[in-house]
Give the backbone structure.
Amino acid sequence: QISEMSLQWTVISWFVYAEAALVLIMCLPGVSVQRWRRILRSRLLRKFDSSAYVYFNVFFGLLILLLIDAYRKMRQHALEELSIDERVNPHGFALSRMRKFRSQVNFTLSAGALLLWIVLKWMVSSLIGRAFLEQDLSIERAKVNDLQRKLDEAQRKLSSTLAAGVVNGSVSDDGSDKKAD
């Protein structure tokens, strides 16, 4: 049982390290939001996109179960430590304290894994949302630039028409159309 638990918590600790590395990589300032969007929307990740919500929730549930198990073990070893007299059985007391410490480490690992899992979910969601907002913003900018170009063109036509009318004398000072004789 000890080797299984050690393997389980070793896997969880490596998972925490991987999560921390991903969070640090996602915080790099040199990577643009559009690049993250392309990475997160790659062909490989798109295969998991339809069921990503299910994967997230299943793994979230698994992490909560690990957290509850670690808390249960932590309480169990704390009670075990209280029942052993240090003067009568010093080796048993030391072993009990070691088990309690391991269970506290496991609790911290599972809580950290759960927290980083939530942070990663939030970061991915916000990066994708920000990428879509920037894409919509660039489309709106293109529309505004097109409208500005059309407005400038219409303004040039109007000013050239007005200039041509003033040169021909068809517009008087009061703005009414009168032919100059």
In short: The chain has a mean pLDDT of 81.
